[in-house]
Design brief:
Radius of gyration: 17 Å
Shape: globular
Order of helices and strands: EEEHEHHEHEEEEEHEHEHEE
Number of strands: 14
Helix content: 10-25%
Bound molecules: zinc ion
Strand order of the largest sheet: 6-5-4-3-2-1-14
Number of helices: 7
Largest sheet: 7 strands, mixed
Structural class: alpha/beta
Length: 249
């Protein structure tokens, strides 16, 4: 059975109980962290996730609220004695900067570091990120301030699907990623350059015929009105993401 854990549900400014948005997907032998904010080890442990099960890290884009935890995650896994490889995925724009960030720490000189494999994803719609018999993850470029990807996750034996918009203005690429998914996780920072309001997220969810919509990357001050406006548009199940919320697939 596949499982999604919301490790953070907040927008760029984290709030008490609402860390920066990042997610964790477990399916079979794959443990996939999607973005890596603030204190990744603390959040993963609080969510009772075995750190040795984390096999992959997808970086959606190079904004601090999505990648600033990468050096700390890598250092802490190393200090904890990790030996198994970690695969890191992202667009060339993201991976180039993630590598440059790690190089500033001179991490190549740290002895006996576990293998870290960087994978540059093509800037194309429905590019394959991970493909295994029980899990497929696709990425498409979305409409944010810098190159950014949204994701579609297929839990194959369960025939269940999940999409994640990441940070984006409403765009057809997300509607396509989310076509008839069981769950769409869509950002709801607010209408404006590079972001979406809850209402716009609901329009995309309706267009994609998603079964369930979960709003993420929101400010708790605006959460209630956010939800009310989205409900007017989207007829399906709708809720706000909360830190440590778990969904089974
Ligand atoms: Zn962003």
């Amino acid at each position: 059975m596949g499982q999604l854990t919301i490790l953070g549900s907040g927008y760029a400014i984290p709030e008490e109980g609402h860390d920066n948005t990042h997610l964790y997907i477990q399916q079979g032998n794959h443990g996939v962290l999607v973005d890596c904010a603030s204190n990744p080890i603390v959040q993963l442990r609080r969510a009772s996730i075995d750190l040795d099960q984390v096999t992959d890290l997808i970086l959606t884009h190079f904004h601090p609220d999505h990648v600033s935890g990468v050096p700390l995650l890598l250092m802490d896994l190393w200090l904890l004695g990790r030996k198994s490889p970690l695969h890191i995925y992202g667009l060339p724009h993201t991976i180039d900067r993630a590598q440059a960030m790690m190089n500033l720490y001179d991490w190549k000189k740290w002895p006996h570091f576990f293998p870290v494999m960087y994978n540059r994803l093509p800037e194309q719609e429905m590019g394959v990120v991970i493909s295994s018999p029980d899990l497929k993850i696709y990425s498409s470029p979305v409409k944010h301030l810098i190159p950014t990807i949204g994701l579609r996750v297929e839990f194959i034996p369960e025939e269940k699907t999940l999409a994640y918009s990441c940070d984006t203005e409403p765009c057809p690429q997300v509607a396509k990623l989310a076509t008839k998914v069981n769950v769409l996780i869509h950002e709801a920072t607010g209408a404006g350059l590079g972001h979406s309001s809850a209402l716009q997220a609901a329009q995309i969810a309706r267009q994609a015929e998603a079964e369930q919509l979960i709003l993420i990357h929101y400010s708790i001050q605006s959460a209630a009105e956010t939800l009310a406006s989205a409900r007017e548009i989207f007829p399906g199940s709708l809720q706000l993401a909360e830190d440590f919320m778990k969904l089974s697939f």
